[in-house]
Specification:
Blueprint (H helix, E strand, L loop, with lengths): L6 H9 L13 H6 L5 E5 L7 H10 L5 E5 L1 H8 L18
Parallel strand pairs: 1-2
Helix pairs in contact: 3-4
Length: 98
């Protein structure tokens, strides 16, 4: 399911010998599992809370195939497992620790 995968991620995985299949963002979990994948990458752009279709699809894949979250994909994975997001105020976002 393509929720915003970057070409370079696919290129690197392919260079490591991975067979890659990219489906549309509305590909069902059933269709993903029918391909018998050895792993599933979830990378997303935008706001994860508005992506209920992605959360539900990932929820259906949990425990059936290894799932790797990249960027907001890790948030989708967390939401699919029941985690609740919190918003940070602007003073703490992107803060440099010295």
């Amino acid at each position: 399911m393509n929720f915003g995968i970057k070409y370079n991620i696919l290129r690197i995985l392919r260079s490591l010998g991975c067979a890659i299949t990219v489906g549309s963002r509305f590909t069902s979990a059933h269709d993903v599992l029918a391909q018998k994948p050895t792993g599933f990458f979830c990378r997303m752009v935008g706001r994860s809370g508005r992506r209920t279709y992605a959360i539900e699809a990932v929820r259906q894949l949990i425990g059936k195939v290894p799932i790797f979250g990249i960027c907001l994909g890790h948030q989708i994975l967390g939401l699919a497992m029941g985690a609740k997001p919190i918003n940070l105020n602007s003073a703490t976002e992107a803060r440099t620790i010295r």
